[in-house]
Write a structure and sequence with these properties.
Layout (H helix, E strand, L loop, with lengths): L2 H11 L11 E6 L6 E9 L2 E10 L2 H14 L4 H5 L3 H8 L8 H22 L14
Helix pairs in contact: 1-2, 2-4, 2-5, 4-5
Amino acid sequence: MDMYAETILEHYRHPHNHGKLAGNVEHRESNPLCGDVITIYLMIENNKVKDVKFVGKGCAISQAATSLLTDEIKGKSLDEIKNLDKQFALELLGVEISAARMKCALLGIKALKLTVYDYLTRQDKTLKEKEFEVEDA
């Protein structure tokens, strides 16, 4: 097993930032094809992520990808998060992801971006969801 596969298993078994957070926004996203579910909780202050937690169930890829993602976004501005893309999420995993597993790998970043969208639309009703989309495979 290579180092990246071990990292995925480690994050699956012992996810970072796991749990609920009494933050100011949360969003639940699911993959109906496989049943994976992720809920992201954000504490946002001064348009930056002060804290992040997640809960979820599903395969090692979806859970590890979200664990790795939550490590990366603490302290980031909402503008930085808006600019995160599919490639960023896949590079965090560090392994080749098959087309069948792409939705699993991107579930966390999709949930994250929609959490930020939910927060920002409360502040500014003119925002469009298109700005926050993560393209699927």
